[in-house]
Amino acid sequence: MSATAIHSYDDARRLARRRLPWMVFDYIDGAAGNGVAEARNLAALRDIELQPRVLVNVAQRDLGVRVFEHAGKVPFGISPMGMCNLSGPGADVMLARIAAQHEVPVGVSTVASTSLETMIEKAEGHAWFQLYFSGDGSGTAMLVERAKAAGYKTLIMTLDVPEVGRRPRELRRGFKMPFKIGPMQFIDFALHPRWSISSLMAGAPDLANFQMPGFTFDRTESRAAADWDFLKRLRDQWDGNLVAKGVTDVTDALRLQKAGVDAIQVSTHGGRQLDCAPPPILALKAIREAVGPDYPLFYDTGLRSGEDIVKAYAMGADFVFFGRAMQFAIAAGGSTGLAQFWKLLAEETGLTLAQIGRTTLPGKAGLTG
């Protein structure tokens, strides 16, 4: 199957599984525990129904959505993801460039394999920086100042990782950050020469945002000290848009709204943190009802198709983000695979709107900043 034969998320995942080393595939694809939370959310998404309508003139359909200062050409963006270049050399830059092309945000992870300065340049300003609290918070504050200096206007504070979730699949493969190669990984890479040779030629991916004096990163370091006082300090330090990511509780959402957070991103980190977490697609609806119709709500976790995009908007989202699906598309076919999957999502979204008799996304047409 060629990259141009990507007709669904499953096609991209199947190709990625064939081409990526087992360790890398399981890192991208894996979830917390036994994958129960991920499966429950996928089931909840599947069971949402959209009512078809007939004899509605839907010849002209508009997929554009405004989100803060971005006037997006499509109703989806890219979630922040760590070490994307593992899916293929230059993956981060591919994501930045396609975000720039469609004028939608690409999330730039604290643990990206391309520097935050390079990413906002390649994204032509359409980049949001994602932050983890770490250790005593001093390194976190340094990254905030770097993001300011680089010209970022939106900061995503990920809140649902007080400790890194236990993901057995990646643990069994010996996945670590920074990257370490032992006998098992050597065999794994030898059995996937196409990936190994291209990655060797491009240089091993590293944690690009930690190449500065006096600052190291330990992926397993506790982030449990983050609290409401930290959020207040961050709000005071950051004068741009502040997004709280990883929220599924109504009480938390209301308190974040009151604390001056500009938007909430409902998410369970792709099911990678807590195996008994509730389906975030259902939490999205409850939080929308609590915060009111005008407060910005974003969504990620479990999205696989254009129909899923429309369902998330119907449940109350103002904008949605895709994560691992984008990495699978890159692993499947590089920039060509990414462009193919991106086009597929846009076309499916438009087709879904036609079927349900709409010319714009359900709910509001978009947000203004």
Give a brief outline of the structure:
The protein is an alpha/beta fold and 369 residues long. It has helices at 9-19, 22-29, 36-47, 91-102, 116-122, 138-150, 168-172, 183-190, 193-202, 228-237, 250-258, 280-291, 306-314, 324-355; strands at residues 65-67, 70-72, 76-78, 106-108, 127-131, 154-158, 241-247, 263-266, 297-299, 319-322.
Explain the overall architecture.
The protein has 369 residues and is of the alpha/beta class. It is 43% helix and 11% strand. The chain is built from 14 helices and ten strands. The chain has helices spanning 9-19, 22-29, 36-47, 91-102, 116-122, 138-150, 168-172, 183-190, 193-202, 228-237, 250-258, 280-291, 306-314, 324-355, and strands spanning 65-67, 70-72, 76-78, 106-108, 127-131, 154-158, 241-247, 263-266, 297-299, 319-322. Helix 13 (306-314) packs across helix 14 (324-355).
